[in-house]
Amino acid sequence: MTLTKDPEVTPKARVVTPKARVAERPAATGLAWLYFSPTMLSITVWVYGPLLFTAVLSFLDWNLVSPDIAFNGLKNYETLITEPEFGNAAWNTLKYALFVLPFATVVPCALAIALWKRPGRMSEFYRMLLFLPVVLAPVANALSWQFILDPLYGTLNQVLGFAGVEPINWLGDPATALPTVVVVTAPKVVALNTLLFGAALANLDRRTIDAARLDDATEGEITRSIILPQLRRPIILLGLLSMVVVWPWLFTNIGVLTRGGPSNATDNVYYRLYTYGFTFFDAGTASAAAIVIALAFGLLLTVHTLLSRRFRATR
């Protein structure tokens, strides 16, 4: 007896021809753009829109109040080039970046590794303590440091006085003002990046480290040969991101503690931009400074992307 399949019951496989695929693509693409449109709209309105407005404003002469607006051409950019204050602010910005970089990479990476190697409740407690500076109100934190660093009655000078150290004008001396502002800002940078390095370490395999310990490898060798090579990319990325995140914190501390002084020793391009816009009411020059800063960061991101691609290609 031969069994035959009923053609009406047997399911037919759906054959998708190339023409059918081409016909389905526009619908799928359109649906994808529909889901993506709120994000694109938000980015356009809140990022590219103000950036375009700032670029237009950088070619104008306007005091933010008067209805008289004049076309200024490239004079605002010429002002930035010829004005020594902006050159000094740019140089100070580079010094800020160099001073902040160890607090953004070396210190938090070492703390994160030390806490990761000893998991437990105490490790979580120390992470909580380290993260406290991030949640402190920036202005209140800066005011607290102002009392601590007071040259006559500050707590720091009083403590140093017991050791026979003469009082130091931490914020009034051009030689110490900029490093002091960096040290005041450092706890926030260290706290945030320690948390981020901890997240990167969570992806590492502890079994490799346990095997290295069974082979009598020292903790220094484990850190140097196993952990740090796997953290190379997070170190570079967090170092770059810190150069973006740290400036609002530095701006607050400069505005409260030094106001760019003494003798513009703690000035930087961000505080100089604020001075152009809201002290001199020169919207054109302030906008030109903002565009220069945006281009500088764009160049920095481009270099980082090219180096990352080259690093991946050589691996």
Q: How would you portray this structure in words?
A:
- The protein has 315 residues and is an all-alpha fold.
- Helix content is 74%, strand content 1%.
- The chain is built from 13 helices and two strands.
- It has a two-stranded antiparallel ribbon.
- Helix 8 runs antiparallel to helix 11.
- The longest helix has 40 residues, at 18-57.
- The chain starts with 17 loop residues before the first helix and ends with a helix.
- 23% of the residues are buried.
- The mean pLDDT is 87.
Class based on secondary structure composition and strand pairing = mainly alpha
Order of helices and strands: HEEHHHHHHHHHHHH
Shape: globular
Strand order of the largest sheet: 1-2
Strand content: under 5%
Strand runs, count: 2
Poorly predicted runs: none
Helix content: over 70%
Largest sheet: 2 strands, antiparallel
Distance N to C terminus: 65 Å
Query: Which whole number gives the mean pLDDT?
Result: 87
Number of helices: 13
Radius of gyration: 28 Å
Question: Any descriptors?
Answer:
single chain, globular, 74% helix, 1% strand, mainly alpha, 315 residues, two-stranded antiparallel ribbon
